Automatic annotation (TrEMBL):
This is Allantoin racemase. Belongs to the HyuE racemase family. The lineage of its organism: Bacteria, Bacillati, Actinomycetota, Actinomycetes, Micrococcales. It holds the Pfam family Asp_Glu_race. It comes from the Bacteria.
Length: 248
């Protein structure tokens, strides 16, 4: 089984960290291929960067020429999952939805701890669209930018731990979702500080993607995620449909 995992930004070190995290939970025989978009921002922290990333991720996937069995979009609260589902005939899993759905098996209420406050509405909207807000206790911001997770890891740990503690104590969360693809390595430290289960979206997405492939399931094509209708698309950067995708 081969799973493509797409970083939504252009920071190569973050792509490698996402790939390494994914491999830690991948089953024997599952190949994880991490990919970085060819264009876009070095971090995604707002609507403009998120929409740009959606195009870049779709472009990267359709240009991939080898066979693959599933795709993971490794951006928290980012746009683009629906477009991938239209283009591909393999399962597409978004880490935001993967983390939240997994959290609901582990406790009554869950909270998301993310980066900047401006990203909170994007995450809330993504969870609402996915029908995952009924048991959402809160979405909290650590106040750190995505790139600060790498440049100042000690400060990142302290800020994320503090917001996670407040989510448990004040918002009554029983599970914490780490709200950024680059937070995977903080999982154990946050768990020890809060005493609750911690869900990393990348790892959750890998296990869900593997399960869907093993069950022979993929996106329904009868209506919402039917392939794009054949038509002329002027000036769009995406190449014609490639391996694992639906022609349009």
């Amino acid at each position: 089984m081969r799973i493509l995992i797409l970083n939504v930004n252009t920071t190569q070190s973050m792509t490698r960290a996402i790939g390494d995290s994914a491999r830690q939970v991948a089953s024997p025989g599952t190949e994880i291929v991490e990919l970085t978009p060819d264009f876009g921002a070095d971090s995604c922290e707002g609507n403009f960067e998120s929409y740009l990333a959606a195009i870049a991720v779709m472009d990267k996937v359709v240009r991939y020429t080898e066979p693959f069995d599933a795709v993971i979009q490794a951006g928290y609260g980012e746009h683009g999952r629906e477009g991938l589902q239209e283009l591909l005939d393999v399962p597409v899993v978004d880490i935001t939805e993967a983390a939240a759905s997994t959290a609901q098996f582990l406790g009554h209420k869950y909270s998301v701890v993310t980066t900047l406050d401006r990203t909170v509405p994007l995450i809330e909207d993504r969870l609402k669209l996915a029908g995952l807000t009924d048991r959402l206790a809160s979405v909290r911001a650590s106040g750190l930018g995505v790139l600060e997770l790498e440049s100042d890891p000690q400060r990142a740990v302290a800020a994320i731990v503090e917001q996670s503690r407040q989510a448990v104590e004040q918002d009554k969360a029983e599970v914490i979702c780490l709200g950024c693809g680059g937070m995977a390595e903080l999982e154990e430290q946050v768990r020890l500080a809060t005493g609750v289960p911690i869900v990393d979206g990348v790892r959750a997405a890998v296990t869900i993607a593997e399960s869907l492939v093993r069950m022979g399931l993929s996106t329904s094509k009868v209506r919402t995620y039917a392939p794009p209708r054949p038509k002329s698309v002027t000036g769009f950067p995406m190449a014609p449909a490639a391996a694992g995708s639906v022609s349009f």
